[in-house]
Structures are given as structure tokens and as C-alpha cells.
User: Fold this.
Amino acid sequence: MVGGHSGSFIAPELIEHGAGAIDCVVRGEGEVITPRVLEARRDAKLSTLPGVVTQDGQGPAPTLLDDLDRFLPARDLAHKRHKYFIGVLDPCASAELTRGCPWDCSFCSAWTFYGRSYRKSSPEQAAEDLASIREPNVFLVDDVAFIHPEHGFAIGQELERRRVRKQYYLETRCDVLIKNKELFAYWKKLGLFYMFLGLEALDEEALKLHRKRITPGENFKALEIAREIGLTVAVNIIADCDWDERRFELVREWAMTVPEIVHLTVATPYPGTEIWFTDARRLATRDYRLFDVAHAVLPTRMPLDKFYAELVKTQDILNRKHLGWGAIPKYGFPAVRALMRGQTNYVKMLWKFARVVNQNRQYADHQRPVTYEMRPPKPAVAKPDPAELFVHLPARLQKPTASGTAAG
Assistant:
């Protein structure tokens, strides 16, 4: 059985590539349907279950979990928990307070997976789950953290009542941080240490292209707020394949003037994103391995090797800025503290940069024989069919059943 976010968008392809090794792919959320799949694993009715795809066919649309409190993480089944970390938060467990995203960025598939739904766990259950975690650090994996401030405050109060003290990492939007500044300041007191903000672009035109629904000024204001609160912040910029040397240079110049950790990812039309339907006909490759936001899968304005040279040059400069000697006062103590606990993940990561980010290796990856190739995309459309775009269809688009309720 195969499932998960990415697999939900290419289920028939996975069955085909599996060549008989995959019994089924479960599209959408797995909590509700997995027990039924296990019960029917040798039954012909397997392919009739919601969200299930087999060689014999597929069932109806997958079902959304109606209550996030129903299924708690079985962390006891993870036998190498000490291997999980994120930056200096080593080791680090993960927890979920909310699920889904109501925004519709063109490059993202979170909203197309969840049908733009947004669900919250109860403050009591969220706090109880966090209290049960033995690791000192927690990655809050919400797609956009703390959209509703009253929910965030309620969880915090439950944590205070239980005297839970940990360090937290989360991801959110700049406009959410601006709107809920007091909430993030409150969570700083609870242990919020590290925040990821998806700026994605520095100019208005690119932000509109990504449909971020935010201005550069708002992005920069959010960075100022995070600095005032005292948070460690990482931001992401999407490197468009149409960039030239000057655009890379501008990003480097800006990144060196701000204290935030700046990441670069390459624009990638993943299956499940809206740009898969609008841009995928321009693909320069359909090799699955290259769809990792580290490789250019669309035609580049510069020769491909020059594009990688600029990309790696930029990443190397930013890496040395944040992981060089100047970073010791900020990150040295957490690294030493992790080492004293026997945790070496973060320190080992520091020495792997050149092996992972390497222009010659990245360029050579395009010359390797292709083992698994994506199916050719359909002709580009300005507005994708919702039935093809979404895994969980939004409630407003679902057809009523005979009983008068929405299906799936």
C-alpha cells in the first residue's frame, strides 16, 4: 500500500511503475480508510473503497477526516526518533494543530490536496499531545500556523496549565504574522524559536504570478515584526527558470542585507499544483528524480550549466553567511547542547552542503538514464477542471447524494 501527499496526485502512474509490486495507492487522507484497506487487502472490493486505486480500477472520492482529535500520532512506532531534526532543533518531534490551507498559491498543492478546507484540533487534545512528546523540540507541521488567533491562544493556555516547556518550529504566512503579532509574541514566551516564512519573491510581479495575495511591503513588515519578537526566521525565494545573472545577483545583494536565513528553491510545476496544468507542457524533462525543487525541470533562459552555476553560487554565499564563523554566537550553543545529548544530526549536516549543492552534480543529473518518467501532461489550460485539480473536492463543488448530504 502506497499513500501520501505526492502519491495522491499520480496514483495510476505509481501503479503502472510498480509493475505489480504495489497492491494499491490510497489517495487523500489515510486515517479513516487505512483500516478498511487492511481488512480488504485480498478482497476484490478493495478497488471500490473511497480513495483507493488498484490495477483493477478505483473507488469513489476519498473521505476527509471529520475530527482531528480522533487519531493521535503513534510515535512509539518510530524506532529512530533521535534521527529526526530540523536545523539546531535536534532531536525534534512533529505535531499537528491544524490541517489544510484556505489560500490558493499557484505553485502549491496543499490547497488542492485538502480542497481548501481548514480544520482544527481541540486546544485540550493539542496540548495533551504536545505534553506527551518526550523530545525537547517540536516541529508544528501545520500548513499555515495560527490562522485563527483564538485557537492559538487557547492551546497556549492549555500548555501553560500543563507546564509544558519545549522549543517550537513552525511555518506561516507573512500576512498571518502581521495580523496576529500578539499571538506569535505569546508563543515566543512558550518556546517558539524558529519560524519559516514563504516570501517566495521580492517583487510585486512575481508575487502576483505566484498568487500570494500579498505585497512586498507586507512581506518586509512581517520580517520586522519577527525581529522585534526575537524569532529566528528562515525565508524562501523561488528561483524562476527565466532568471538571468542579474536577477541572481539582486537576490544575493538583498539576502546579505537581512539577518534572516534565506533559502532558494527552483520553480517546479509539481503534479497537483495549478502550474502543472498551465506550465507543464513546457517541461524540459519528465524524470521523477529531478522534481525536487533543486533541479530545473522547465527551460532556462541561461544555458542550463550557467543556471546551476548561479544557483549554487547564491546558495553557497548564503550558506556561508549563516553557517560560517559569524553564526557561532547564535547557533553555537544549541549545537553544543545537542552534542552533549549525543545528538549529532545538525553538526553532521554542516559538512554535507558541498555534496548536496553542487553545480556539476546537478547538471550531470540531467544526463543520467531515466528510470521513471512522468506521463506527458495534458494540453495547457487557463482554468483546470476541479475534478482533476483537487484530491478532496471542496464542499461547494461536491454533488449532493440521495440523502441530501455531500459525498466524499
Q: What stands out?
A: The radius of gyration is 22 Å. DSSP finds 18 helices and eleven strands in the chain. Confidence is low (pLDDT under 50) at residues 402-408.
